[in-house]
Amino acid sequence: MKRFTRIIVLMLVFALLTQSFFVNAQDDREAKTGGRFVVADAQSNVSLDPFVTAWHSWPHYAIFSTLFSRDENLDYVGYLADTWEVSEDGKTLTIHLIKNATFTDGTPVDGAAIKWNLEKYANPDTGAAQGADLIGLLTSVDVDPNDPYTVTLNLTSSYAPLFYSLSGIEIASPTAYEAAGPENFGTQPVGAGPFKLKELNTNNYVLLERNDDFTWAPEENAENTGPVYFDEFQVTFLGEDQTILAALETGELTYAGIPTQNLADIEANPDITVAKGLDTGLTYVGFNTSKAPWDNKELRHAFAYATDNQEVVTIALNDLAVPVSQPLPPSIWGHNPDLDAEAIHFDPDQAAAMFDELGYVDADGDGLRDNPDGSAWEVPIAVQNDDTNRHIAEVIEAQWSSIGIPVRLDVMERTALIELTTTGTHDLFLLGYGYQDPSILAYFFEEDRKGGSNRTWFSSEELSGLLHAADSDLNQETRYEAIQAVSRYLMDQGMWIPLFDAQVLIGVRNELKGWRLMPNLDFNYWDAYFEAGS
Fold first, then answer.
1. Is domain 281-504 classified as CATH 1.10.357.10?
2. What are phi and psi of 392, to 5 degrees?
C-alpha cells in the first residue's frame, strides 16, 4: 500500500512539474510575441510570384518555404525536406518530406505539391529565372504511390549544385496558383512560410502577418521552430542610403545595411548594434592567358608574389575585408583554410628575382623593367571607374611599381570592362564575383565559356575534368574533396591573384533580441523577438 501511495505521489509531482514547464514555456512565448520587424529593400518592389520575378528576397522567403536550407557550417539541412537519399549514379534524388507543413490556404505540402512546383520551374515555357537550371536537368518527379510525402527527382545527369538550387526555389500552393492564375498570384501569394501577405502598397511597402500555423523552421537553425514571435514583417521600398540610415536611427527600421563611410557614426549610436559578415564573393586580379606574355605561368606567379593583399585591405578598405589566397573565400562552402599554406603570399624579393630570371629587367636605367628584348614594357589593368575599385588598383599599382613594374590603369565603366574581357584582346583586369556555391568556378573556367564569363580565356582538359567531377558529385563529402582539387589546380596555374572577401555591415536596433547573421548573410529571425516595453 505504501509503495502504491509513493507511485501516486510521484505521478502527481511529475504532472505538476510538467504543467509548470508548459505554463512557463507559454508565458515565455507570450512575453516574446509581438511587434513589427521592418527592413528596407527597394528591389523587393516586384511581383510576389516566384515563377515570375527575377528578384527573390525578404518577402518571398517569408511567404514561401524551400525544400532545403543551410546551417552555420554552410551545410544543407532539411526545411520542407525531412530526409533524403541520392542514388549511386547521382541521377535520382529521393526526398521524404515533413508531414506537418501546410500552405496558408490549408492544403498540404505533400509530394503532389512538390511535383507541381518543380515541374513548373523545369518547364522552359514558365520562364522562371529562379530554378532555371532545372530546365533540361529534371526529366520528371515521381510521387511514391505508397507514401504521398515521398518524391523522387529524376535527372539527366548528376548535378552537384542541385541542393543549392533547391534551397533557393520557393514552393507555392498549386491550388491557390491555379485559382488565381499567373496574372493575379503575384498580388495574392500563398505559400508555407512563416508569414502571409496582409497588405501590398505598390511602390511603398509590403506588409506581412505571422502565419500562426507555421511550426517547421529547420531545427538546426532555430530553437523556436514556429510560429515566429513577430506579429508583422514589413519590407519598405526605400533605396537611398542616407534615408535608410536616418530611418534606422529613429527606429522606423529595425535592420539596415551600413555603408562603410557611415560605420563610425552608426557604431557611436547606443541604440544600434553593428554586425559584420563576409560577402559571399571574391575580388581578384585576372590575366588573359590567351595573350602573350600572360600565357606564362611563371610570370603570373611573379605578379602574385608582388601583390600584398593585406595592404590592399588595410589601405583601400580600412580593414573592412579579409585577405584571401585561394579561388573560394571563407564565405563559400568548399573553401579550405588549409590550402592557404600552399598559396603564394607577398614576397617582393621573390617577385623581383623571378622577373629578373624571366628577363624583365631595367635595360635603359630609367628605373622601370623592360621587355626581355629590351623594348619598353607596359602592364595595362582594366579597372571599373568607381572610387573603391580605383583605390584598390592604385594600391596594387604602387606595390608593383616599387619593384619596377610599369603599370597603366585603364579606367572604364563596368559594362565596358565586361565587354572587353569577352574579346580576348585585354591584358589584366580587376573584377570580383558574388555567389554561394563553388560551381561558380565552372562558370569562370569552363572552356565553352571563353568569350563570355571565362575572362581569363584559360582552359585545359585536366581542368575541365576536375570541374566536371566537382559539379557532378551529389555526395557533399566527396564533392568537397573534388573542389579542393579544382582550387589547387587554379592556384598552381595562377590565372587569378585572389585579393579579398569584403565585409558586409549590418545595423540592428538593440530592442531586437535573439537574431543571428548566418555565414551566407541570411538574417536568421526564427528566435528573434522585441524586448518587452520596447
1. no
2. -60, -50
62 DSSP assignment: H
Taking the C-alpha atoms of residue 420 and residue 60, their distance in angstroms, rounded to an integer, is 36
What residue type is assigned to position 34 of the chain?
Answer: G
Q: Are 490 and 273 in contact (CB under 8 A)?
A: no
Question: How far are the Cα atoms of 288, 290, 319, 394 from residue 381, in angstroms, in the given order?
Answer: 11, 16, 23, 11
Strands (DSSP E) contained in 367-412 are 379-384, 407-412
Q: Helices in 42-87 by DSSP H: which ranges?
A: 58-63
Q: In terms of Cα–Cα distance, which of 156, 171, 228, 222 is closest to 195?
A: 228
Other CB atoms within 10 Å distance of the CB of residue 509: 22
Cis amide linkage into residue 293, ω under 30° from 0: yes
Numbered ranges of CATH 3.40.190.10 in the chain: 37-271+510-530
List, in order, residues 6 or more apart from 413 with CB less than 8 Å away: 384, 385
pLDDT, tens digit, 9 for 90 and up, residues 283-338? 999 999 999 999 999 999 999 999 999 999 999 999 999 999 999 999 999 999 99
Domain limits, CATH 3.10.105.10, in the chain: 281-504
Q: pTM for the whole thing?
A: 0.85
Sequence-separated (6 or more) residues with CB below 8 Å from residue 383? 389, 390, 392, 393, 409, 410, 411, 412, 417, 429, 430
Q: What is the pLDDT of residue 129?
A: 86
Query: Is it true that the peptide bond before 270 is cis, omega within 30 degrees of 0?
Result: no
C-alpha 528/C-alpha 61 separation (Å) is 16
Radius of gyration over every alpha carbon of the chain, rounded to an integer in angstroms: 27
The pLDDT of 485-492, averaged and rounded, is 98
Q: What is the spatial distance between Cα 414 and Cα 432, in angstroms, rounded to a whole number? A: 11
Cα four-point dihedral sign 467, 469, 473, 475: negative
Write out pLDDT tens, residues 147-184. 999 999 999 999 999 999 999 999 999 999 999 999 99
Residue with cell string 531586437: 512
d(CA 493, CA 301): 8
The pLDDT of residue 534 is 61
The rounded distance, in Å, linking the Cα atoms of 103 and 190 is: 7
Please calculate the CA angle 209-243-194 and round it to the nearest 5 degrees: 15
Rounded Cα gap, residues 185 and 176, in angstroms: 8
**Fold for domain 37-271+510-530?**
D-Maltodextrin-Binding Protein; domain 2 (3.40.190)
| Strand ranges for 268-405 from DSSP E | 272-278, 281-287, 321-323, 379-384
Kindly tell me if the per-residue pLDDT of 18 is higher than 80. no
- Give the phi and the psi of residue 242 in degrees, each rounded to 5: -70, -30
* Chain length of the chain: 534
Helix axes 387-401, 309-317, angle to 10 degrees: 140
**Cα–Cα nearest to 95, from 107, 108, 82:** 82
Concatenated DSSP letters for 285-324? Answer: EEE-TTSTTTT-HHHHHHHHHT--HHHHHHHHHTT-EEE-
Q: Which three cell numbers stand for residue 261?
A: 563611410
